[in-house]
UniProtKB/TrEMBL annotation:
<dbReference type="InterPro" id="IPR043129">
    <property type="entry name" value="ATPase_NBD"/>
</dbReference>
<protein>
    <recommendedName>
        <fullName>Rod shape-determining protein MreB</fullName>
    </recommendedName>
</protein>
<dbReference type="Pfam" id="PF25216">
    <property type="entry name" value="Volactin"/>
</dbReference>
<dbReference type="InterPro" id="IPR057363">
    <property type="entry name" value="Volactin"/>
</dbReference>
<feature type="region of interest" description="Disordered">
    <location>
        <begin position="321"/>
        <end position="341"/>
    </location>
</feature>
<feature type="compositionally biased region" description="Acidic residues">
    <location>
        <begin position="325"/>
        <end position="341"/>
    </location>
</feature>
Length: 341
């Protein structure tokens, strides 16, 4: 056994193998605060709603948080911002710990391999991912896992480009960041992130239309399509405008980083786009159109949208963990044989 874990700003997901199937467990990475009462806590416990009581407050965590926020006319709070633990949210660490415990469960055996995603340091911000990485690693190690970080963009390569010898450009459009990795035979040639993603799109659309951010997020996650034909002046129209701006921004930074890294011009690679922010219908076509207009100094053999964009990073972590586990097993068998001699 082994597990992969996508530690995302909007969702946290685990992946593990069950026979020939990959099983995913998911929780929304958010919480909402409500007033404590004995009756309220009894009802939450009876209904198996994930929650924590602290003093005279109850915190509803995970998937149920958005429902409670809408009922009580509150905004959800998020343990993470811009792809890493939020320094502005004092409850970030206990909430993250609870959600991660729910998503990964107990290890099947001591030191079970688990690869968890971490973003690259963003090139357009002074944010550092080190504290975030070490904190998540500590959570998982204390639970009994042998936890290893994996770059989010590289996880996309592992998940989606096995048939191309793990060679290509993987782009993960997350909520807090967008991560980019160019790999050649599973070796990263270039990796970076930008501090814009789905949250930035939602915030800009909310500001432009005077709509609460949670409402904008709900619209985006329902039946929103990038077709640019409806809702001029409304939430969906604003979302379309800022989605297009996000794609331009990411592609401009890909071109810039390729130039700075002096990538070989003879490359001919596929591009795969994934992540929850890439889910709306029309995203792949819009991305392909904008990429064709960009001056990238190597050849693109095709653009592919992951069939399950929300699950790509967790699946990539699982691939890495299983590969690492397979390497360790022969070493352990050799050590055991030597001990018997």
């Amino acid at each position: 056994m082994a597990k992969g874990l996508d530690v995302g700003t909007m969702n946290i997901l685990s992946a593990q193998q069950d026979g020939s199937d990959t099983v995913f467990v998911q929780q929304r990475n958010s919480f909402v605060e409500i007033e404590y009462s004995d009756m309220a806590e009894q009802m939450l416990s009876r209904s198996e709603v994930l929650h924590i009581r602290k003093d005279d407050k109850v915190y509803v965590v995970g998937d149920d948080a958005l429902n409670f926020a809408n009922i009580f006319n509150k905004n959800t709070r998020r343990p993470m911002k811009h792809g890493i633990l939020s320094s502005q949210e004092k409850s970030a660490i206990p909430m993250m710990k609870l959600i991660i415990e729910q998503v990964v469960g107990e290890p099947s055996y001591p030191d079970e391999k688990l690869y968890f995603s971490v973003p690259a340091d963003p090139i357009d911000s002074e944010l550092s991912t080190l504290y975030h990485q070490k904190t998540i690693e500590s959570f998982l190690d204390n639970m009994g896992y042998d936890a290893e970080p994996i770059n989010e963009g590289m996880a996309v390569i592992y998940s989606e480009l096995a048939d191309n010898n793990f060679t290509g450009l993987g782009i993960s459009f997350g909520a807090g960041m967008t991560n980019v990795c160019l790999a050649y035979y599973a070796v990263p040639v270039m990796k970076f992130s930008v501090a814009r993603g789905g949250d930035w799109v939602d915030e800009q659309a909310a500001q432009a239309t005077g709509t609460p951010v949670d409402k904008v997020t709900s619209v985006k996650e329902s039946d929103f399509e990038l077709d640019f034909t409806t809702d001029v002046g409304g939430v969906e129209g604003a979302l379309s405008i800022y989605y297009e701006n996000l794609l331009d921004y990411v592609i401009q930074n890909v071109v810039k980083e390729v130039d700075e890294e002096d990538i070989e011009e003879g490359l001919d690679v596929p591009v795969v786009v994934t992540g929850g922010t890439s889910s709306p219908n029309g995203f792949e076509a819009l991305f392909r159109d904008h990429l064709e207009d960009a001056n990238i100094p190597f050849s693109i053999s095709g653009v592919h949208h992951a069939s399950e964009p929300l699950y790509s990073v967790a699946r990539g972590g699982l691939v890495a963990a299983r590969s690492d586990e397979d390497v360790d097993e022969p070493e352990e068998e050799a050590e055991a044989a030597a001990a018997d001699e």
